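Researcher: Structure prediction, please.
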Amino acid sequence: MASPAIRTLTVDEKFDLITANTQEVMRPDIIRDILAVRPLEIFWGTATTGRPHAAYFVPAIKIAQFLRAGCKVKVLLADLHGFLDADKSPEATLESRAQYYERTIGALLRAVDVDLDNLQFVRGSSYQLTPAFCRDLLRLSKRVSVHDAVKASSEIVKSTGDPVMADGIYPMMQLLDEEYLDVDAQFGGIDQRKTFALANDTITKAMGFKTRAHLMNPMVPGLSGGKMSSSDPKSKVDLLDDPATIQRKIGKAFCAPRLIEGNGILAFIQHVLLPYSQLQSPDGKASISVVLKDQTEATTLASFGEVTAAYEADQLTPQIAKKLVIEVLTRLTTSIRNEFDADVEWQRIAGVAYSSPIATSKRKEKQTRANQKDRKAGQA
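Model: Predicted structure follows.
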């Protein structure tokens, strides 16, 4: 789909777009002050652990909004953070998983029409192992208590019993990432709030570094009602799932009638479908068109408030909402699957990065044809 003609945004419009759908923004004054004089520089980091899934469309849409607002964006592939987090990424997989993430997230961003020329991927290990970073990490460790460091990571790293030293190192490295990436702001999930709060309380006083703004999006509910997680196959849609699998998973998703809280289907509409439609619209206005219950003509819903009102009135039923998500999610993931199917190196990387290699639709079809040929030969 071709991107809409871009119009110049005011400072207020840029700020509104940058902060849209966030649950909390720390130090919004920093963002406003910078927007008045130059583009905001911001980064989003992701630990390279399990395979990226459909929830990654949420940060992808925010990155698209940042870029639309003229921001300079860096995506941190936090390979060492993945290693520190309860060994979610064994040391032998660090390189392959970082490569897999870069290819997957690049394809994901292209699927929502992000111009990658305005975005930079950075590998955490490219600077986190340098003498300067290690020295600053040691300096910071003298100023942050063990209690505060472990508390900051309590909602991010996987708990396996008593805290280990890596649990405290993890958030301190994230604090230093802001300085070494030379940004004005960091974007992440609300589960990182304690780390962001530690940054605001510590980084300037302890290290003399500038204070950054922090933007947090809500955690998107998974298909089973809890957090969407790579480690829970029932809670997620993989970005490489085929249309039939997407339809089956969304069809079984938790989506109680009239219930808004914890509804992963509605959350996807709020954080992906509506803002994506806004980015695609020439006038910058969000809207989705859907035929509601007992109607024959499509109704335009222009805000999440209108979506929830229709859902609570049972005009937008769970079945209709799921169908809407299935259609859009299938369309957005098709280009990702096509890129993967056409990229032999990406397929090889996937097999090295994860214990169960991902089968592509084309390879399945090829194997099926080969089996049919063998059967015919055997019958001859």
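Model: The longest strand covers residues 41-47.
Researcher: Thanks, that helps.
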